[in-house]
Design brief:
It is elongated and about 70 Å long. The longest helix is centred in the middle third of the chain and has 44 residues. The two termini are 44 Å apart. It has 2 domains: 110 residues, no CATH class; 64 residues, no CATH class. It is built from 7 helices and no strands. By secondary structure, the protein is mainly alpha-helical.
Length: 187
Amino acid sequence: KVSVLEQDYKRVLAPTIPKTEQGRPPSDFFNWAEELQRVRESIHNLEHWDQIENQMIAPHLNHVFQLLTRHYAGKQEEEAIWESWKDRYVPELLTLLKVMRMEAAQKSAQKISALRFLIDPLLPESRRNEPFSRKAMWALVSLPGVTCVLNGIRHPFYVQDSLTVLQWPPLPESRLLFETLHKAQTT
């Protein structure tokens, strides 16, 4: 559906928008069906998808929607066509973005599941059901000689994970955990 709506945009709306000397031509403002299909297989995990969505897709869409809303303001017939198209396009695009997010989350879950399979037997029973982020932080802060871990506290739950783990006693045999992961990666 996104692709069909983008073709409608190129056929009906793009020709009414003057081209600028720099930047994309108006016909390329909405190519998300094609672009997302092209990058779909290369998305590594949920964090990677978040970067794509927040640093590429959202800023571009915000800019283009503002630009075109200003362009069509006061042009009654064209403005109505633009608003109608936008009202149909946005929900379909959001649905596509949710599907992409879900696929990225599944990739993350598969990777974490494989890591859990390797490390959980090396953890005390009482910590095996903890979130993976806490296990990772705990393993790092338990290594002899490690006095600081920079974990990129971008969300409040990262802070909570860090504060929780700091209350735990050091993980016995933390080095064995890393050796196991290294061995699994090299075989």
